[in-house]
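Why run this: before we spend reagent on co-expression, it is cheaper to look at a predicted model of the complex and decide which construct boundaries make sense. The entries below are exactly what would go into the expression plan.
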Amino acid sequence: MNCTAVHLAIGAEPQGMTPELEAHLRECASCAEYRREMLELDAQILRAMKIDLAALRSDAPQADAAQDLPARPPVRLVSSAPPSPPPEKSSWGAVLKRQWALAASVLFAVGVVLVLWGALPRHTLAADIVQHVLSEPLPAQEKVLPPAVLETVLQNANLRLDPIHREVLFAQTCFFRGRLVPHFVVRSGNAAVTVLVLSREQIDGPVHFDESGYRGVLLPNPGHGSIAVLSRSQVDSEKEGRQILSALHSLPAA
Amino acid sequence: MIQTRPDESGERLEDAFGQLLESLRPDLVRFAYWLARDRSIAEDVVQEAMLRAWRARLELKDATAARHWLLTIVRREHARLYERKRLVTVDLNDVIAREDAALARAGDGELLDLRTAILRLPDEYREPLVMQVLGGYSTAEIAKEMNLSTPAVLTRLFRARNRLRAIYGLTPEPDCEPNPEANAS
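The model came back. C-alpha cells follow.
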C-alpha cells in the first residue's frame, strides 16, 4: 500500500482501519499525521451537521444582536480604582432600611422570574400544533381543492364531515405526536382557517391560545379527543370549531 | 358516534412506534436538511417519510434498526420528491445566502464556514458524506442506496472531504485525486 492509496482510503473513511493500513501508518509519519487531521476534520463535520433545528426555522429570531457587536478587547479582572474605605458601623435604622431594600430586591427578582417564565415557550399541545402548522409547507398559490380530497383524508381517519359550505384549500394526513391526524385548511370569508382532528388528545374544556402569530382554540370532542382550529387572521375560531364539530362524525371502522 | 378501537396490545405497540418516530424526528430532519439544503423541504420530506414508515410499521422487526430504516426512507423520499414535484429552479448562491442567514442563527459561529462549505458541495459529493457522517451508513450501504460501485463511493467521499480540508487551512491532496472514470458505477 503506497502513500497515495493510504490517503485515498483515509480521505474516504477516516475511521476505517485494516491491518495493511495499520502497518503502513506505523512506518509512515506523514500518513499518520494525515489520518489525525482527517479524524479531526470528521469530528468537525459531524458537529457542523448536528445543527440546532430551532435556529433553522424561517420564523426564528434574527441573529443575536450581541454577535453583531465588535469584539470586546480582552479585559483583565483588575480594578484601577483605589480600594473602597471600610464601611462605617451601621445604625439600627440603616440596618432596617437595608433589610427592607433587600426584601424588595428579592420580591422584584421573583417577579421578574415569574414574568420571564410566563414568556418562555411552553411545550403545550397548542404550541405543538402551531409548530406543526408552521412546519407544514403549504402551496405557494392558494388553490381550491375538490371536496373529495378532504373526504379521502377524513375517511383515512374513519371520519366524515357533513357539508360546512367552506372551500377547502389544503387537506392532508399528517404525523402529529406519534399519530396520523387529518389536517385541513378551509376558507372562511377572507381568512384561511386550519383544522386538526386530534382523536387521541383529550382536553377538559375549550383552550384558547395565541402562539407565534396564530390564534385559535382547542375544543373537546367528547369521547373522541379534540379538534384544533386556528388562523393567522381575525376569525372566531370557537364558532368555526363548533360548526365543524357538529358536522364531524365517526365512521364504523372497516 | 361509532368507533371501533384496536385491541389494547395493538394500541400499545402503535403508541410505542409513534414515540419512537417522534424521538428520532430531529435526526431525520437534520439528515433531510443536509440532503435538501432547505428546512421546509426537509420538514416536508420527513413528514412524508413518517407517513410511509407508519404504514409500513409492521415491516420493522428490530427496533434497534429503526434509525437506519427511517433514514433510508427519508433518503428515498427526498429522491422521490424531485421525481414527484417539479420544484422551482433556484440559484445555488441564493440558497447559500438564505441558508447562511439561518445557519448564522444556529450558533457555533466557528462552524459557519464549514456548514456553508458543506452546503456548497455538489449533490454527488454531499449526499454520500451526509449518509456516512450523519447517517452512519457503511460504504457498501451507500453504494447500494446510490446505485454506485464501492470504489465510486470511496472516490466521492474522498473528494468531499478533500474540498472541506481547505476550510481548515489544510492542503488538499491533488495527487490523490483518482481517475474520474473510476466514478462510473
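Residues 175-185 of chain B have pLDDT under 50 and may be disordered. The radius of gyration of chain B is 19 Å. Bring this page to Monday's planning discussion.
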